[in-house]
Design goal:
By secondary structure, the protein is mostly helical. The protein has one domain. It has nine helices and no strands. Helix 2 packs across helix 7. The radius of gyration is 24 Å and the shape is elongated. Pfam families: GerE. GO terms for molecular function: DNA binding. Keywords: DNA-binding. This is DNA-binding transcriptional regulator, CsgD family.
Length: 164
């Protein structure tokens, strides 16, 4: 027997079952993504223990983990006293993008301006172990600015932070 469109009742039932299964799989996938995000946060907290043990206040550790890799690159360049224009030229991004990154850092660090970023973060960067910084930064090394923060030097980390 057909449903008027040439489909048999069996085909219609099979399509309904496939649709229901697809809905269930989507729900499971969403739940797994939430669980994965929770696990990442828990592992981040575990990783942060080393930085806290080094004497960095927990709120600043949280700020380091909250920053994006691009913000970490910009942070290192701000600590080197670079202007937004210099950062944008070096990273080959619009100056407005650099401003966005720095404004985001200011908010995450709870400071007023880039001078406050430097005053707050110089001692923090001195205390943070290099391996812990790499985990907090999403893969950007602590000495990125010293090695790759100048034009013309190939940057193997560009794919991590650049918005290509």
């Amino acid at each position: 027997m057909t449903d008027g469109t040439g489909n048999t009742a069996e085909t219609v039932a099979l399509e309904a079952a496939v649709y229901a299964l697809s809905e269930k799989l989507d729900a499971i996938d969403a739940r797994l993504e939430r669980m994965d995000a929770k696990l990442e946060r828990m592992l981040g907290l575990y990783d942060a223990i080393g930085i806290i043990a080094a004497g960095v206040p927990p709120r600043l550790v949280a700020a380091l983990y909250a920053m994006t890799p691009a913000e970490h690159v910009a942070l290192q360049m701000v600590l080197d006293n670079r202007s937004n224009r210099e950062i944008s030229v070096c990273l080959d991004v619009p100056e407005a993008q650099v401003k966005t990154w720095i404004d985001s850092m200011i908010a995450k660090l709870g400071v007023k301006d880039r001078r406050d970023i430097r005053a707050l973060m110089y001692p923090v960067m001195a205390k943070v172990p290099a391996a812990d910084y790499i985990r907090a930064s999403g893969g950007i090394p602590k000495d990125w600015n010293d090695k790759y923060g100048v034009g013309g030097i190939p940057d193997p980390f560009r794919r991590i932070y650049h918005p290509d």
